[in-house]
């Protein structure tokens, strides 16, 4: 990326079960309302009024979510697709690859507006985001149970992204909901490229 681009924090957020599963038949394999509230709080948080975050979606994720998610405050949505030429209803943009979405957020007219780029899956979008030099934080909820899944979070280098013992704004104790235990985790990039 050239110098004229305004660097943004690229963050991944996902809930991941034992064995790395994240989805089944186009949906989340679990129903964890408080975990979902945590997700909403993270992606909608901005440092001051008037700022916005960019949420990056794969096409299937976009269509598998209810419209209430698309109307969240402080968020612009970009859907990634190589086959769609116009943004789907309620989305603001469509881009054909991850780099184009990041570039859009880092260039005028959005560069002054966008604070954080939140990557919300699926697998290929996460994979591309993990390769991006601006990717600094992974918010991964460890769902401490086995679920039958057909979509998985990609492998990543845990020497490069280090699990944090504690992280601001992230409860460190184990949670339990609907009989399922889970814990919020943050992995932080530890290299010179990290923010
Ligand atoms: N547990 C969690 O936190 C979590 C988070 C996210 C998703 N999920 C689950 O994951 C599943 C959906 O994920 P998925 O991996 O199957 O599908 P997906 O990434 O949402 O959608 C795949 C499609 O999106 C487009 N696409 C994806 N990555 C792209 C890229 N880097 N560049 C350009 N286009 C890209 C392509 O569309 P075209 O074919 O049009 O090019 C591709 O066919 C669902 O079950 C969902 O519930 C779970």
Automatic annotation (TrEMBL):
Q: Which Gene3D superfamilies match?
A: Dihydrofolate Reductase, subunit A (3.40.430.10)
Q: Which reaction does it catalyse?
A: (6S)-5,6,7,8-tetrahydrofolate + NADP(+) = 7,8-dihydrofolate + NADPH + H(+)
Give a yes or no for keyword NADP in this entry. yes
Q: Which terms are listed as keywords in the entry?
A: NADP, One-carbon metabolism, Oxidoreductase
What sequence ranges are listed for the domain DHFR? Answer: 9-189
**Keyword Plastid attached:** no
- Its Enzyme Commission number(s) read 1.5.1.3
Spell out the molecular function terms from Gene Ontology: dihydrofolate reductase activity; NADP binding
PANTHER family (UniProt xref): DIHYDROFOLATE REDUCTASE
Q: Under what name is this protein listed? A: dihydrofolate reductase
Q: Which organism is it from?
A: Salarias fasciatus (Jewelled blenny)
């Amino acid at each position: 990326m050239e110098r004229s681009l305004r660097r943004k924090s690229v963050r991944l957020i996902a809930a991941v079960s034992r064995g790395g599963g994240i989805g089944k038949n186009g949906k989340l394999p679990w129903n964890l309302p408080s975990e979902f509230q945590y997700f909403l709080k993270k992606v909608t948080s901005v440092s001051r009024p008037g700022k916005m975050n960019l949420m990056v979606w794969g096409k299937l994720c976009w269509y598998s979510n209810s419209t209430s998610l698309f109307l969240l405050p402080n968020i612009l949505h970009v859907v990634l697709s190589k086959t769609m030429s116009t943004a789907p209803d309620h989305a603001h943009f469509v881009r054909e690859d991850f780099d184009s979405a990041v570039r859009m957020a880092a260039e005028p007219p959005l560069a002054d507006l966008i604070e954080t780029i939140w990557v919300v899956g699926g697998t290929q979008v996460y994979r591309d985001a993990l390769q991006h030099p601006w990717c600094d934080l992974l918010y991964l909820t460890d769902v401490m149970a086995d679920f039958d899944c057909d979509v998985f979070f990609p492998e990543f280098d845990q020497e490069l992204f280090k699990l944090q013992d504690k992280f601001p704004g992230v409860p460190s104790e184990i949670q339990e909901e609907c009989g399922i235990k889970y814990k919020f985790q943050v992995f932080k990039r530890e290299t010179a490229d990290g923010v």
